[in-house]
Amino acid sequence: MAKSILSDKKNSLFIILSGIFITNALIAELIGGKIFSFEKTLGFEPLNTPLFGDFLLQFNLTAGVVLWPVVFITTDIINEYFGKKGVRRITFITVGLIAYAFLVIFLAMKLVPADFWLEVNAVNEKGEPFDINYAFEKVLSQGLNIIFASLVAFVVGQFVDVFVFHKLRKITGKKKIWLRATGSTLVSQLIDSFVVLFVAFYFLGPWSITQVLAVGVTNYIYKFIIAVGLTPILYIAHYIIDKYLGKDTAEQMMAEASNEA
Fold it and tell me: Which of 7, 44, 86, 88, CA to CA, is 20 to 30 A from 96?
C-alpha cells in the first residue's frame, strides 16, 4: 500500500511538472511571432545604444522569451528528480504536440473564410478598411516560422541543458543546486536564443543579420537576468517537492537520477 501511494506521488509529480512544461512551451511558440519593446512596456524610452554597426541596441524581445525561462527551469527540476530519461520523455512528447499544433494552424490557414465573417470585420474601430483573414494568416504564418525554428532549437537546447546539468552535478554533488540549474539554463538559452531567430526571421523571414544578432543579444540578456532571478523559486520548488515526496524518497530519486548520468 505504501509503495502504491509513493508511486502515485511520483507519477502525480511528473504529470504536474510535465503539464507546466508543455503548457508554457506551447504558449511560448504561439506568441513568439510578436516582438515587443521591453523598455516601453515598463514606461521607459528605448536605450538606443549603438550595436553591430548602425543598428541600435534596444530591448526588443520576442514575446516567447517571457515563458521560456520557466520551461528551462522546469527542465532542471525534472532533471533533478527523474534524470535524463524523464527529460527525454517530456521533450519528445512536447515536440510531438508542438508539431501537431503546427499542422492544425497550417490547416486552419487553408480554410476558406466565411463571407459574413469578412463583412462583419471589414473595418476596424477607426472605420478604416481591414482584412481580418489576412491579419489572421499574417500573424499565424509568423507563428509557423517560430514553431518550426523552435522545434530545432528546442531539441538542441534541451539536450545541451541536460548534458551541462549532469556535468555540473558530477562536480557539485547534492550541493549548489543554483549552479547546475542556472549554469545549464544559461548555456542552453544561449543556443536557443540565436537558433530560433536565425531560422525563423533570417532564413525564413525578412530580417538582416544585424537585426538577428541585436535581438538575439537582448533576448539572451533578458533570459540571463530572469534565469538568475528565478533561482529562489527553484529552491522553493525543491522544498515543496521534498516535503510532498518525503525527504528520503526525494533524496533517493535524485541519487538515481544522478547515477543515470
Answer: 7
**Spatial contact of 181 and 73, defined as CB atoms under 8 Å apart:** yes
E-strand ranges in the chain read 35-37, 49-50, 56-57, 60-62
pTM: 0.78
The β-bridge partners of 57 are 49
Which residue, chain included where needed, has cell 535524463? 84
Comparing C-alpha atoms, which of 176, 259, 178, 182 is closest to residue 223? 182
